[in-house]
């Protein structure tokens, strides 16, 4: 599917020589000790790994033979992942190409183009949340080889899970407990407290607030909230979506200004079905780079116990980011 700024979306013909997927292509298993779900997807071992530029599957190609996108050019394109972790009637994996410019990045998109990407994510989120087999839609971007990116072309991914992920489940439990104890929405309380404290706020505009969370786990961790509570990107007004795109771009540009090389990062959108009691649209961004020449590795405490240790105070992370804003 190709998306353009004038609101047109075009469904292209899929000319890919796809291997036929079977239900056994991936398997969702539950760890009986913890209740965690693990997606077992052996076919992903075969996925394209850092192909040479002329073989880039995300660059436009009129023939559609060397690329996934049979078009002369495009603004934003979406297609089903050729190597999906989730498929069939148990979820779906899509790829979102942010731009046809192979050497571009999200941070270097115009505001209008960034807004188009958010509109495309809204379109896909609403469409996928409408499916009975989908419990949660996760739009995210992995940027940088250090993060494990296997294609250099600027792109993000959408995972439509047939189950609620552990982090979302934990957040919903916290929100329900907070509502039971105080009668208030947890995410409204968090935003109010951050705005009042101020010390961790990175950007505050009429419609959007970006802050480093009180208990940040990752280097350069920033959460971006629309000031009005909505469940997903599709519920934003035009003015709110424009402002969110602008703040999001400013954060990504600050990321790239922090060190000599662009910052590797993960940007993750939290979205919920319209009408859900708990849950509020927001983005969580973070890096694994903790200084110009050091990467944070998830070692024993983090990997084996999920107990994070951070060596930079969240208040100092916020100061670093404010200094990097242009
Ligand atoms: Zn490319």
From TrEMBL:
Pathway: Carbohydrate metabolism; galactose metabolism
EC number(s) on file: 2.7.7.12
Keyword S-adenosyl-L-methionine: no
Cofactor(s) recorded in Swiss-Prot or TrEMBL: Zn(2+)
Uppermost EC category: transferase
Gene Ontology cellular component terms for the protein in this record: cytoplasm
All residue ranges annotated as the Galactose-1-phosphate uridyl transferase C-terminal domain in the record: 179-279
Catalysed conversion reaction: alpha-D-galactose 1-phosphate + UDP-alpha-D-glucose = alpha-D-glucose 1-phosphate + UDP-alpha-D-galactose
An annotated Gene Ontology molecular function: UDP-glucose:hexose-1-phosphate uridylyltransferase activity
Domain Galactose-1-phosphate uridyl transferase N-terminal, residue spans: 88-164
Keywords: Carbohydrate metabolism, Galactose metabolism, Metal-binding, Nucleotidyltransferase, Transferase, Zinc
Keyword Nucleotidyltransferase: yes
Annotated cofactor note: Binds 1 zinc ion per subunit.
Signal peptide positions on this chain: none
Catalytic residues of the enzyme: 155 (tele-ump-histidine intermediate)
Residues annotated as binding Zn(2+): 56, 59, 102, 153
A Pfam family the protein falls into: GalP_UDP_transf
Family designation: Belongs to the galactose-1-phosphate uridylyltransferase type 1 family.
PANTHER family from the UniProt entry: GALACTOSE-1-PHOSPHATE URIDYLYLTRANSFERASE
Protein name from the UniProt record: Galactose-1-phosphate uridylyltransferase
Lineage, top ranks: Bacteria, Bacillati, Actinomycetota, Actinomycetes, Mycobacteriales
């Amino acid at each position: 599917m190709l998306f353009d700024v004038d609101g047109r979306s075009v469904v292209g013909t899929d000319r890919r020589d796809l291997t036929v997927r079977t239900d056994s292509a991936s398997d969702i298993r539950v760890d009986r000790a913890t209740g965690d779900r693990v997606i077992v997807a052996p076919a992903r071992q075969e996925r394209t790994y850092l192909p040479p530029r002329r073989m880039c599957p995300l660059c436009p190609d009129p023939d559609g033979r060397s690329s996934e996108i049979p078009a002369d050019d495009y603004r934003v394109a979406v297609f089903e992942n050729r190597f999906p972790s989730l498929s069939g009637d148990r979820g779906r994996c899509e790829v979102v190409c942010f731009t046809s410019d192979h050497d571009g990045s999200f941070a270097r998109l115009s505001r209008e183009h960034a807004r188009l990407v958010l509109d495309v994510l809204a379109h896909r989120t609403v469409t996928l949340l409408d499916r009975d087999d989908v419990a949660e839609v996760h739009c995210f971007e992995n940027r940088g080889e250090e993060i494990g990116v296997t294609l250099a072309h600027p792109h993000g991914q959408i995972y439509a899970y047939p189950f609620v992920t552990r982090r979302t489940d934990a957040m919903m439990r916290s929100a329900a407990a907070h509502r039971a104890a105080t009668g208030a929405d947890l995410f409204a309380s968090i935003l109010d407290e951050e705005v009042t404290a101020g010390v961790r706020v990175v950007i505050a505009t009429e419609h959007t607030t970006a802050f480093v969370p009180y208990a940040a786990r990752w280097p350069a961790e920033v959460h971006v909230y629309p000031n009005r509570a909505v469940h997903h990107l599709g519920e934003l007004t035009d003015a709110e979506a424009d402002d969110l795109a602008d703040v999001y771009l400013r954060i990504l540009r600050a990321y790239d200004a922090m060190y000599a090389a662009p910052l590797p990062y993960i940007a993750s959108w939290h979205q919920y079905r319209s009408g859900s009691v708990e849950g509020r649209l927001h983005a969580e961004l973070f890096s694994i780079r903790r200084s110009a020449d050091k990467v944070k590795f998830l070692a024993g405490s983090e990997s084996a116990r999920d107990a994070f240790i951070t060596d930079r105070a969240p208040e100092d992370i916020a100061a670093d980011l404010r200094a990097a804003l242009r």
